[in-house]
Amino acid sequence: MTQAFAKSAAALDAVPPGGPPRNEWRALRLVAPYLLEYRGRVAIALVFLIVAKLANVGVPLVLKQVVDSFAPEKAIVLVPFALLAAYGLLRFSTTLFAELRDIVFIRVTQRAIRRIALGVFRHLHALSLRFHLDRQTGGMTRDIERGTRGISTLLSYMLFSIVPVILEFVLVAAVLFARFDWRFPAVTFIAVSLYIGFTITVTEWRIAIRREANELDSRANTRAVDSLLNYETVKYFGNEDFEAGRYDDSLRKYEDAAVKNEASLGILNIGQSSIIAIALTVLMMLAADGVERKVLTLGDLVLINALLIQLYIPLNFLGMVYREVKQSLIDMDRMFRLLSVNREVEDRPGAVEVPPGETEVRFRHVDFSYDPKRQILFDVSFDIAAGSRVAVVGHSGSGKSTLARLLYRFYDVSGGSIEVNGIDLRDLRQAGLRAAIGIVPQDTVLFNDTILYNIRYGRPEASDEEVRAAARSAQIHDFIVSLPEQYEAMVGERGLKLSGGEKQRVAIARAILKDPRILIFDEATSALDSRAERAIQSELDRIARGRTTLMIAHRLSTVMDADQILVMDQGRIVERGTHRDLLERDGLYAQMWALQKLEEDEPVPGVTLP
């Protein structure tokens, strides 16, 4: 299924976003497999559809017989109760089989929505960190919402509106050919052709207007979501009116596009109604003339009127259907563009799992750049032996956190290689690699759920007692049980109900619960005060014991006991050694150590400040 999904997405990837307009009808290629998967249900639904339309066309034929039986020239011997009963039965059958059709088909529609939405969700998680750093969440979620809704509209209208109208037109044309002269089907064909041509022409013109409205709607939603996610920043600077003004500017542009869209809809409806009205008038004049000349009966007049009303009512609906189908394809196309975004980081064919047992990590002459114009890492080489701890320190922007992202394989290196147990990361399965790594990040972002959920996220199958044990190890259990809801307390959007230190303790508990073979501490105690840091540091040392550990630190006091300390500056390793070795070398590390001690008002004998 995943491969088929990828192939369908690739087939849709004709033009990159911002390029020429795409042929939205190609979105049908992605939907078609779901109809084939439920071909039995589709076949039954089509049978119900045909029966419903036959009953619908049969109603005017029976009505003609009823009217003719009451003609003055015929002596009424018996009221045509059988015809009236048949008329009522056909009316009921039309509704009955139409509803049965919908009941049978609803599973196909909902399953298609579920499978495609799940495919888009999985694909978004498979994309690189680069994509997610550039994305606009509000607009993207709105595109997915409209796209999944468009699937339901497309399947329902394509199969149960367009096909029925075509079928009904064929049946009506057959009756007109069989019972009346050539003028009646000729007028009908001409009117239908003009109607369809006019509808398609105007609708294609409206598509550009609707696409612009969608773009502006997504932009407005993006601004609203972005502003609300940064609620505290807005409050810090008192920029509520500024944010409201930006949002209103987007809404105003959307308002103008929506008004233009509705005006064009009015033009379309007026043109459609004019064509139908003229055609009905001409046909009724022909029928009335036939009755006057005794060529047709009064029942024939009623038959023609009923047939044409039954044809033109759904034909009028067909105009709306075409508009909705085209709009659904536009909405789906925007969603499918997400599928066509290439996965920057993918498993190679034949990728293997991380070998069991002790784990060793090696960086070999690694070069890396987020942007080709700005290189971040230059010829970085170091080893983390199995069970040892290597710390990386340096000024902000020196490339420390980039090492963790590369080890997680959020990006692939630009040059050189990273190896785990002698195997290049690019030859390992990403899922297995990341399962072997646990991280306590500098910026801890939590799900808007309970504390229990956020800690258990490290290992979803863990028991409540295991979660509590991890919380105790992270020195946060006592805080949690002091809350009214305890472990069921909600942490808020992005964990905003917790302090920075509390969030970081939750992250530590989550990493402890995962029980990984490789640990990454990315400034794991940066949000803690000195007292809390000392309480946590001993616990971090305990859980790191026996594990291959990469420690990225700003506070040098947290890495004094590391087996090796790497000092980075402007993307290069400029010093390496133990804490004592680096102090004796009196280089950059010694300067950083002296500065931090000075900040703590603790004099350091024998160290000269820069």
What can you see in these coordinates?
With 610 residues, the chain is an alpha/beta fold. The chain folds into 3 domains: 2-339, ABC transporter type 1, transmembrane domain (ABC transporter transmembrane region fold); 358-436 and 519-532 and 547-603, 3-Layer(aba) Sandwich (Rossmann fold), CATH 3.40.50; 441-515, 3-Layer(aba) Sandwich (Rossmann fold), CATH 3.40.50.300. Helices cover 62% and strands 9% of the residues. The chain contains 19 helices and 10 strands. A 6-stranded mixed beta sheet has the order 6-7-8-3-9-10, with helices on both faces. A 4-stranded antiparallel beta sheet has the order 2-1-4-5, with helices on one face. Strand 4 and strand 5 form a beta hairpin. Helix 3 packs antiparallel against helix 4 (81-126). It is elongated and about 120 Å long. The relative contact order is 0.08. Residues 1-21 and 603-610 have low confidence and may be disordered.
